[in-house]
Design goal:
The chain contains 40 helices and eight strands. By secondary structure, the chain is mostly helical. Strands 1-2 form a two-stranded antiparallel sheet. Strands 3-4 form a two-stranded antiparallel ribbon. Strands 5-8 form a two-stranded antiparallel ribbon.
């Protein structure tokens, strides 16, 4: 975690890894603006140009100033690199100071620039402000207005289904390539299902699509999937990544649970399903509270929705509700992480480095960062901080409160009864204990006990000290005296049981006394044995004399006085137990609790709001240190975008009850003129369909980010998205009905040679399922998927061996595990609903690159590592659901390996196996069955057939055909 008091190194660690120069790419003679300035800006400007005090009076921001030099004389001699002090200091490692040195390529760029005359791209200004922008910065591609270029003309017009295809095909044709043929229908429905709803299609759905011979069958399939409620779950998950969604606070090891965060998750899902316009979606998340009037009571569903939306601004790690942390550090860290989430998700910019100094690579001023911070400061005032719990907004209505008050009054009556009964029991216990003492001390002790502790005399205190058992009598100690009662009752029970045996034996002896001695002995021998151990002859003998057999049940017939004695002892024990007081009190407590449980449950919204009339001042922090505040700054966006006619953000909007800052900022981002927002959004949509963004760094549209492979297409889509009302579902349909999306994943030699990374989209790239989608697919094919939507998350916990698994912790007072708590099928819900604990990622999801929200995730990695194979082959999760998969297949096709193999194959891969594949499957099943017959696993009740099929199903779910979508 970055320390805000000294955050500068965090922004410098990457600086030696990049060379933004034309020379590095063989572009000819280097120029100051395009080749040298980016290097010096990243490494040197913080001492030689950006601060008020310029080290050694050497300003490196203009070529002319470099030639003039500083205290040590001219820094460069144009045409003579060897005689240039700047290069000498850099090559010696003396400059820049610290551990980060320039790379060999960067040094060579500077050397070549000096030797070639230290040329500039244009005439330099007479003067330059510390935060001015260069021509290159002003004209950087992502800061330009979004245009809508016409789709280019192409030769192969038959492959153009919509303008997207024209833009892509034009570049393909330039490279001598074209689209791959369309994928077959089985491939398309599997691809579409995973892309749009995150679940595999069922065999029935596949068959319906295959047999639909209408010309618009594909479009109908797209419409059906877009209308599915599971669409919102799939695309909500994508947004939750960039929002940094988590169900815990993070920041420290405590990682406390984040109550009610799930409401924001549900808001996102529902917004996706409703196809809420994205401009509205963004405005609600940034300023939902500013769109409604306070106070926030008796809220309508619409207003609850808007407040819930601001949970977006509550997703940053927040340790301010945890003890043992530096509160000022934690508060400022919340603000810093919130700005990272907002800027990367909505603007595709990395503003974080500007917290300590002007951004080394992007034209983001140090002042820009704090002006942007000022937008959020009224709601996140670090000097008048509100902890997570204190920010909650209750969903209780006045009617809820009235009903709760009525119920509380009823519960209070039961409480009053309990209090009165407790006082009575205390008196009874006191009397009982006093009777055990000498009569002379009884009354003095009673008086001393009844006297308030603060008013007792010294003699009374001394007396009570001598009889601690009396002093300790209280409501909380009644159970101790109940224990004595239980001991006494148990003693009576033991006496009763002893007499029962004795009385029955005595009565039996009398009852059998009239029999001949030999016969009497035989009956007694038979009676001495347990009924199950008696021989047939003994059973017959007892049957013959059944009227002379004495039992406890018929003792009264043979010995009425003995039976009466037994009953007296039983009643004495029962009466004694009836005097137990703690249990009676507990009954009243339980009754009151039951009544209170009928109150309307009070829900809360985790929202971001402002305190009325509270307008904190925002100051620039010198080098990011909150203990070194400098000049006051007004709220504003990025200065580099000022030329695009964006209105200023008010300090305090008089038309609103709030400052209006966030609402103005939200409107700025979504007014259609902002050059970043729509580009960033459509690029992310494209990424999640094609596996790669047109800009491959979706969270960084700045100088260090990738350049767009198809800039005209990106702008056309951004413009189309906005003109279409910022609606995502129509945009999806446009993407997935394009030839580019519908093509197969078949590669060609020409394509591999010209475009090995498929950046021109000559075929569909194969993609691995994300962690959550993989788990959901396993649940789906096993037949166990619980499709319940919304609500509180499925909890996670640490098991006995330290793995993170689904479950509720159930520990005793010593934190030892008790019996597992049944999750009632919640464990089979989609992965989206599993609790996201930053310190407790679910094992099966973590293995497959589920992101850590620190603070968010703008692009997921897709690794291939050994633990993934081990997880699929050996984990409890994998073996459990392979078994469930096998049971599902067995139920449909019992005792038929051939049918089982074919059904399992089609469930897993959405395509039937060939005859050869079926035969190989049957051979495998037969071999495995024989193995388990000869080597039955210890303690396993499953049949060899089931174990063999489980192994087969596990192999299917571990294969690339299951893990990847083509």
């Amino acid at each position: 975690m970055m320390n805000l008091k000294n955050p500068a190194p965090a922004c410098l660690t990457i600086s030696a890894c990049f060379l933004l120069s034309a020379t590095a790419f063989g572009a000819g003679t280097p120029l100051y603006e395009t080749d040298v300035r980016p290097i010096l800006k990243a490494q040197c400007f913080h001492c030689h140009g950006e601060e008020e005090e310029i080290e050694g009076q050497l300003d490196l921001r203009l070529r002319r100033l470099i030639v003039n030099g500083g205290d040590s004389g001219p820094a460069i001699v144009p045409g003579d690199a060897k005689g240039s002090l700047l290069l000498e200091r850099i090559e010696s490692g003396e400059m820049p100071p610290g551990k980060v040195n320039l790379s060999a390529k960067e040094i060579e760029t500077i050397r070549t620039w000096i030797n070639s005359g230290a040329k500039t791209a244009r005439d330099e200004p007479e003067d330059i402000a510390a935060d001015d922008f260069t021509y290159e910065e002003r004209n950087f591609w992502s800061f330009q207005p979004i245009g809508k270029p016409d789709p280019p003309a192409v030769k192969e017009t038959s492959r153009v289904r919509n303008p997207i295809d024209a833009f892509l095909l034009a570049k393909l044709e330039e490279a001598g390539l074209t689209f791959a043929p369309d994928a077959d229908r089985r491939t398309l429905i599997r691809r579409l299902s995973f892309d749009l709803i995150g679940l595999p299609p069922t065999p029935e759905e596949v068959n319906t699509f295959l047999t639909d011979d209408r010309p618009d069958a594909y479009e109908r399939l797209v419409d059906r999937l877009l209308a599915s409620p599971h669409y919102g779950e799939r695309w909500g998950r994508h947004w939750l990544d960039v929002a940094g969604y988590a169900d815990s606070e993070g920041f420290s090891e405590a990682d406390t649970e984040r109550q009610s965060a799930w409401r924001y998750r549900d808001y996102v899902i529902q917004s996706m399903n409703d196809d809420k316009p994205f401009d509205q979606f963004i405005r609600e998340q940034l300023a939902g509270d500013e769109m409604i009037a306070g106070p926030f009571k008796n809220l309508s569903e619409e207003n609850v929705e808007k407040l819930t939306a601001t949970g977006f601004l509550r997703m940053a790690p927040d340790g301010t509700g945890t003890g043992g942390v530096d509160q000022n550090l934690a508060r400022n860290q919340v603000m810093a992480e919130t700005l990272k989430i907002v800027s990367s998700s909505l603007m595709g910019m990395t503003v974080g480095c500007a917290e300590c100094h002007s951004h080394r690579y992007d034209p983001i001023r140090h002042t820009d960062y704090y002006s942007m911070r000022a937008i959020f400061e009224p709601a996140l005032d670090w000097k008048k901080w509100r902890t997570p719990k204190s920010r909650r907004i209750s969903l209780y209505t006045d009617e809820d409160k009235r009903l709760a008050a009525e119920i509380e009054a009823k519960a209070k009556l039961v409480d009053d009864e309990r209090v009165a009964l407790t006082a009575k029991f205390i008196d009874q216990t006191l009397d009982a204990q006093l009777l055990k003492l000498e009569e002379s001390v009884r009354e003095p002790l009673r008086v001393a006990y009844k006297t308030a502790a603060s008013k007792r005399t010294a003699e009374q205190k001394e007396l009570l000290d001598k009889f601690p058992k009396i002093l300790k009598i209280s409501a909380g100690s009644l159970y101790l005296y109940d224990r004595e009662i239980r001991v006494e009752a148990a003693a009576i029970d033991n006496e009763r049981k002893k007499k029962e045996k004795e009385f029955v034996e005595q009565a039996q002896e009398i009852a059998l006394s009239s029999l001949p001695e030999e016969e009497r002995a035989a009956v007694k021998t038979a009676l001495s044995k347990a009924a199950s151990a008696r021989t047939p002859e003994q059973k017959t003998l007892i049957g013959m004399h059944s009227k002379q057999i004495v039992t406890l049940a018929n003792l009264e017939e043979f010995a009425p006085e003995s039976a009466a004695e037994i009953e007296r002892l039983k009643k004495a024990a029962d009466d004694l137990r009836a005097t137990q007081k703690a249990d009676r009190i507990k009954e009243f407590q339980n009754k009151a609790a039951e009544i209170r449980n009928t109150k309307p449950k009070e829900g809360f919204v985790r929202a971001l709001t402002e305190v009325a009339g509270q307008l904190p001042e925002t100051h620039l922090f010198f080098r990011g240190d909150f203990e070194q505040p400098k000049e006051k700054l007004a709220p504003a966006g990025l200065s580099i975008l000022d030329d695009y006619g964006l209105v200023s953000i008010p300090v305090n909007d008089s038309n609103l009850a709030t400052s209006g800052r966030r609402l103005a900022f939200a409107k700025r981002l979504t007014d259609g003129n902002h050059p970043l927002t729509a580009r960033v959004l459509v690029n992310r949509f494209w990424l999640n369909h094609f596996g790669r963004g047109i800009v491959e760094t979706p969270g960084d549209f700045g100088f260090l980010g990738a350049r767009p492979t198809h800039p005209e297409l990106l702008d056309w889509m951004a413009s189309e998205f906005m003109s279409g009302g910022w609606k995502l579902k129509p945009f999806h349909k446009m993407l997935v009905t394009s030839t580019a999306y519908r093509q197969s994943s078949k590669r060609t030699e020409a394509g591999d040679e010209v475009d090995p990374d498929n950046k021109l989209y000559s075929h569909m790239s194969i993609r691995r399922l994300e962690a959550e989608t993989l788990r959901d697919a396993i649940l789906a094919v096993s037949g166990k998927l619980n499709r319940k939507m919304f609500g509180e998350p499925v909890p996670v916990m640490e098991d006995a061996v330290g793995q993170i698994v689904l479950g509720k912790e159930n520990l005793d007072g010593e934190r030892k595990p008790l019996a597992a708590i049944d999750l009632q099928g919640e464990e089979y819900r989609r992965s989206l609903y599993i609790q996201v604990r930053r310190s407790r990622p679910l094992g099966v999801l973590a293995a497959f690159d589920m992101p850590e929200m620190e603070p968010n995730c703008t692009i997921r990695s897709s690794s291939t590592v050994t633990p993934q194979a081990l997880m699929l082959m050996n984990s409890d999760f994998s073996t459990q659901f392979a078994g469930e998969f096998a049971s599902r297949v067995e139920e449909s096709s019992p005792n038929d390996f051939k049918k089982q193999c074919a059904q399992a194959w089609e469930l897993a891969y959405c395509t039937p196996p060939s005859e050869q594949q079926v035969q190989r499957g049957v051979d495998y099943l037969t071999q495995q069955k024989e193995f388990y017959q000869q080597n039955p696993p210890a303690g396993v009740k499953a049949t060899p057939d089931h174990l063999a099929l489980t192994s087969f199903c596990q192999a299917l779910m571990s294969s690339n055909a299951f893990l990847y979508v083509d």
